[in-house]
Write a structure and sequence with these properties.
This protein is of the alpha+beta class and 190 residues long. Helix content is 46%, strand content 15%. Helix 2 runs parallel beside helix 4. Bound molecules: zinc ion.
């Protein structure tokens, strides 16, 4: 058996995964889209990359981002179709533009899903469609507005974002092995 110390892995992972999660722009929205696809029998992978090769610029110098999708042939034994999506953001886009671009490209994906469903799931067409552009921009703007409303609402923040301070009090050691021993803020309600 190989000798890997879980405490050592943990010490590194806390920092590494925290940094990674801070860089995972629009992570909740991407998760929402993946779940939506899953409910519609499509297993979706989304990868967001800074476009270090300037592919976006070469594709169209005025564009801020592009979306590429790949349809992966279905395993006949699985009920799920499979699509891989890559969103490339211009490397010089700032934080806010990057997030709006991700939302914009996700709406192209949602439209592609609607077309896929409309074809009785026979034809995946992830090609960019000019007629979708204004709805993609509208989706990005409205969705980011909802994020702002949520993030500025102190009740939402207390309920869903901030963990109760007693979890980090001196001497408190988290133990999830028995729900009967949890502190009040984590108690199971019967
Ligand atoms: Zn677009």
């Amino acid at each position: 058996m190989c000798d890997i110390n879980p405490e050592e892995v943990k010490s590194k992972a806390v920092d590494e995964i925290f940094i990674e999660s801070k860089q995972s722009l629009m992570a909740h929205t991407i998760r929402g889209v993946v779940n939506h696809f899953h409910k519609n029998l499509v297993s979706l992978d989304v990868i967001v990359s800074r476009d270090l090769a300037n592919a976006v610029y070469r594709h169209a110098p005025s564009k801020a981002s592009i979306l590429k999708t790949t349809y992966i042939p279905k395993d006949p034994k699985s009920p799920y179709y499979r699509v891989r999506a890559r969103i490339f953001i211009r490397k010089d886009a700032n934080h806010h533009l990057s997030r709006l671009c991700i939302a914009h490209e996700l709406f192209h994906l949602l439209m592609a899903l609607e077309h896929f469903k409309g074809s009785n799931r026979e034809k995946w067409d992830g090609q960019w469609k000019k007629e979708d552009e204004s709805a993609c921009n509208g989706f990005a703007q409205e969705l980011c507005g909802k994020h702002n409303e949520f993030n500025s609402d102190s009740r939402e923040r207390d309920l869903r974002v901030l963990f109760p301070s007693e979890l980090f009090a001196q001497g408190f050691v988290l133990d999830l092995s028995d729900v009967n021993l949890l502190p009040d803020c984590l108690k199971i309600k019967h």
